[in-house]
Each structure stands twice: as C-alpha cells, then as structure tokens.
Amino acid sequence: MALSCTLNRYLLLMAQEHLEFRLPEIKSLLSLFGGQFASSQETYGKSPFWILSIPSEDIARNLMKRTVCAKSIFELWGHGQSPEELYSSLKNYPVEKMVPFLHSDSTYKIKIHTFNKTLTQEEKIKRIDALEFLPFEGKVNLKKPQHVFSVLEDYGLDPNCIPENPHNIYFGRWIADGQRELIESYSVKKRHFIGNTSMDAGLSFIMANHGKVKENDIVFDPFVGTGGLLIACAHFGAYVYGTDIDYNTVHGLGKATRKNQKWRGPDENIRANLRQYGLEKYYLDVLVSDASKPSWRKGTYFDAIITDPPYGIRESTRRTGSQKEIPKGIEKWEKCPESHVPVSLSYHLSDMFLDLLNFAAETLVLGGRLVYWLPVYTPEYTEEMVPWHPCLELVSNCEQKLSSHTSRRLITMEKVKKFENRDQYSHLLSDHFLPYQGHNSFREKYFSGVTKRIAKEEKSTQE
Fold first, then answer.
1. 302-307 and 364-377: which strand pairing?
2. Domain boundaries in the chain?
3. Whose C-alpha in 83, 288, 292, 357 is 20 to 30 A from the C-alpha of 144?
C-alpha cells in the first residue's frame, strides 16, 4: 500500500467485542488528537489486526490512553503473508529507524502473539531465532526490557477451521496498551449506586470516546439515571451534569436494585458514585427535570450530550403533564391545589428523540457531539428511521443486538450548523419524519417477540 512518507505505519491489535463500535471509536479519537482516518487505511473488517497511518508516535500514544476497543499498538516494521515475505519486508525497513532501539546500551525482548491458534514454546523460540538477521546489539532482558518487539500471527476468524500457516504475519515495536482494564475497574458490579438499567462500563467509555469527550468539557445527560455515563466522561476530565424525571433516582431514595437489599442507603447516589472513583471534583449537579420541557435559557452550554433514553421496557418513558391533559373524571386530582399537577404522561419514543435532537441542536457548541441509543425492532429497521436534524450531521450508527428481533443502535451526531428557530420544526418537512413513528410501538413489539419465544420454547420442551 502506498503511504505518504510523512506518516508512520502502526499495527493496532483490536479487542474482539463490540465489533461495530471499534472503527467509529478509533476515527473519533484520531480526530480528537490531530490525526485523520484516511479511506486507504487497512481495517480488515472483523479481523483484530488493523494497519493505520498515523502522523506521530505521540498521537498513537494518546489514542491508546483513551481507547477501550484496542488492546495494543505497535510501530509496524514488517508485514507479510508468509515468513519469507515478512523477512523480506523487514530487510527493506529503513535501518536508521531501527538503530535507536537496537544499540548496544539497550535491552529488549521479543514476544510471540498468535490469534486463533496456540503455539508450543519450541515453536515460539524457533520464530524468535529466525529473526537473528536483524541488527540487535543490545542485551535480552525478559523482565524489564527497555524495548519490546512482537511477532503477531493471524490464523483467521474461524476456530473450527484453523489453517496450518497464518494468513498474515506482522513484526513491530510495542508502543502502548489500550485502556481495557477500565472495563473491570469501573465494573457496575463494584459500583456504589446502581439501577435496573445502569450502563455497562465498557459501553460507557465507548460512548464518551464517540463523543470526543476531553478535559474541561461540559457534558450533559438528560436521562441520567444512576450516572454511569457521567462517570465515564468524568474519568476523561470532563465536568458532568445531568437531569432525570425520577425524583427517587436523582436523590438516591426508594427501593434498592441489588439483591438482598430492600432500601437504598443514605449515601447511595450519583455524587457518591463519582466520589468512589475519585471524580467528585468533576460533578456539577443532577436535577429532577423533565427532558420534554427543558428549562434552559437559549444558548450553547455543552461540549457533548451523552445519554441513554428509556425504551419503555425496564424503565418507563414519562413526561410531566399539564392541567389540560389530565383525564376528566379522576376525583383524586380535585384534592390538589390548582398550582400543582402531579401527573405524568407517556412519552412517545419518536417525540422523545425529536425533542432530544432539537435540544442538542440548541445547546451544543459547534462541533459538539450528541451520542445516544436508539432502540429498534430489527425486522422493520431501515436507516431512514434514524432521526434527522438540519443542525446535526450523522457521524456513526452502530448496532448492539438485544434479542433475535430487537436491537439498539448507538447514534453519534455532530453539530455542524448554528441553530435557528425555524430549525425546530424542519423535520416535519422531511421524508425521514414518518418512519420515526415506528419507534412508538417498540415496547409492544419487544414483548410480542418475548411471548412468542417463550411459547416456542415451551412447545419444544413438551415435544
């Protein structure tokens, strides 16, 4: 592949989960740190081995300080589809680029990494010995080497059909590892305050990366729940703020979600979650508020809006009502003062997402990003269903399957145009508007599918 002489080639070793989320995360992070993802990059689809052209090692290191989708990155010295091709490629790699890491005062070690195949120790040593033609002058140090080099062999994706020889072989200098350990250290299982729909830690960090959240940003979540997304954004140095319509959740009151615990404790709340991870200084506030009626002055406040709206499955979709919307004939409302309307109404999904996009278009800074989950009934899903707004540009659309017939899509949009009053209703003139209505029956379709699956399983057990 012809590459610009100003760009270095790097090999990314990707994690084999959330496959659709990997490319948007890497693109977003490269953009955040001054790089660019060219169309000529080699990503190899579902393969864990990606070759990228990155302007500098500093950008490569910054990328790895953020990514949870990549395991490691290497400066690529050679690549081939056979050992002979690899050795030929290594012999053509500029010696002046090798010398700083191979001189007599340095220490090093060589590691062998295989994907979809296990090698014996004898086979590994044989591969290391075959590299003796490289100008290594330093000493081997297996415990604390200054430089680590790796041979990485790719045996394909099918564990039931492992080839005798690898499809691709790579050799490179290890640069840095990704942030995979965050998934465990921020695990919801260890978290002080959780709810029925607390976001998985890995996905929370992926959402923050898709949103290009960075130090000193102000990030908002209008459906904050127990604050899992705020934690991920605060970890990257952003100041976080949120709202939720549920008073008990915001104040950490009511029944506990954990097994064998009846009521939430006195210090079981969102602020305590951030305190648990040493992130309390990034906590601005969380308010009880209705996302359908935001009480904000006109202006651009947020660098990113990262959120997981309720789908009506485990958490209901609600909004506050008005006096006109109270059903007639309900006597209990007569006991309430005129100034108080204690009622909540169903909040159609299509309305919720249109309100969310309008809110993002109004309050995001130019270049700010909206990242949210869109639930879909898979058999009826088309790309036209993704909500549209004239001020927001679609950046990525990734699927996570929930069941055989439902999924949710992580939508990332970027504000590209200043909001004007006429933009608030421009979606009504768009051909995209009607398909949104299909989202309103997501709950019924979801439970219809569950009912059918249970009936099918019962029938098969009876037979």
1. parallel
2. 6-177, 181-316+342-426
3. 83
Domain 181-316+342-426 has CATH 3.40.50.720: no
Cα–Cα nearest to 359, from 246, 251, 270, 243 = 243
Q: 440-461, pLDDT tens digit by residue?
A: 566 667 666 555 555 555 556 5
User: What's the pTM?
Assistant: 0.87
Distance between CA atoms of 310 and 26, rounded to whole angstroms?
28
| pLDDT tens profile 292-328 | 887 888 899 999 999 999 875 545 555 655 545 544 4
Residue 20's alpha-carbon distances to 144, 156, 182, 401, in angstroms, are: 36, 18, 20, 11
Q: What is the mean pLDDT of residues 356-380?
A: 94
Backbone angles phi, psi at 425, to 5 degrees: -115, 10
Those residues with Cβ within 8 angstroms of residue 375's Cβ, 6 or more apart along the chain or in another chain? 311, 313, 349, 402, 406, 407, 408, 439, 442, 446
Tokens of 211: 């949103």
CATH class held by domain 6-177: alpha beta
- Distance between CA 50 and CA 71 in Å, rounded? 12
Q: Does this chain's domain 6-177 share its CATH topology with 181-316+342-426?
A: no
CA–CA gap between residue 107 and residue 152 (Å, rounded) = 21
Of 43, 41, 35, the closest CA to residue 59 belongs to 35
- pLDDT score of 355 more than 50: yes
Q: What is the average pLDDT across 123-129?
A: 97
Beta 283-288 vs 302-307: how paired, if at all?
unpaired
In the predicted model, what is the mean pLDDT of residues 269-297?
91
Backbone phi, then psi, for 50, in 5-degree steps? Answer: -120, 135
Helices of type H across 245-339: 247-251, 270-276
Q: What is the pLDDT of residue 152?
A: 98
Which helix (H) or strand (E) segment is 54 a member of?
strand 49-54
